[in-house]
């Protein structure tokens, strides 16, 4: 984005102007986007309605008395449970973006209750199950990328982990899971946390609480031709005493489309070559 409030001094030379233009074109070419590309917000949570449906969210209750419910007073979706081993899934509608997605989530995880906790982007060929963690239990057909803090996947990884599930194995058979990174460290329980991650066909990045992002690439291209939805799961430990109230919650969920590499970016690189040639 060009900042119109910081115009260059009128005394700037023509050569300086050319240098700025070349730098901008190179940047656009490297990122694979045009200078005018704008990310499209596909979903933004709004908890001001009367129920989860008004917020564009769906609760799928699992075994036991566990549900995601709207807390309009505090503008969030909270996990409400009344028995041990309660579980439930929360999800949005599905969206498509060939360029990839950025998911920004603000949430709190209760320190004592969850034995499984995960959220992320899952292909809509998978039907969210209120009794199974799509990532923490590596459910069959749950193709997607997400973040998990509690359960077998996080335990094996040695901490909170960004992971990819190719969906190829049955529940609790974890060969379908690829651990992408634990480098952002573990979240703080009972405190508001933020996770932001981006996935494209070739790579991924993620950040916790605004830290510098950790980045990497997929060994096999991530399929951005699929439709994806936000899916979150929590299961309460069978040994935890019920609280009859909300502990974990999501206060903000935002899904943004990553712009596709454009022909304008390629033209930009061509323009760089032409400008450099003329300057020789």
How would you characterize this protein structure?
The protein has 280 residues and is mostly beta strands. The chain has helices at residues 14-31, 152-157, 263-279; strands at 40-44, 58-61, 66-71, 76-81, 87-91, 95-96, 101-108, 114-123, 144-150, 161-165, 177-181, 193-199, 203-208, 214-217, 227-236, 245-257. Strands 1, 3, 4, 7, 12, 13, 14 and 16 form an 8-stranded antiparallel sheet that branches. Strands 2, 5, 6, 8, 9, 10, 11 and 15 form an 8-stranded antiparallel sheet that branches. α1 packs antiparallel against α3 (263-279). Residues 1-36 have low confidence and may be disordered.
Write the layout of secondary structure elements.
Layout: H1 14-31, E1 40-44, E2 58-61, E3 66-71, E4 76-81, E5 87-91, E6 95-96, E7 101-108, E8 114-123, E9 144-150, H2 152-157, E10 161-165, E11 177-181, E12 193-199, E13 203-208, E14 214-217, E15 227-236, E16 245-257, H3 263-279
Antiparallel strand pairs: 1-16, 2-5, 3-4, 4-16, 5-15, 6-15, 7-12, 7-16, 8-9, 8-15, 9-10, 10-11, 12-13, 13-14
Helix pairs in contact: 1-3
Estimated structural class: mainly beta
| Mean pLDDT over the full residue set | 83
Spans where pLDDT lies below 50 across 5 or more residues: 1-36
Q: So how many helices? A: 3
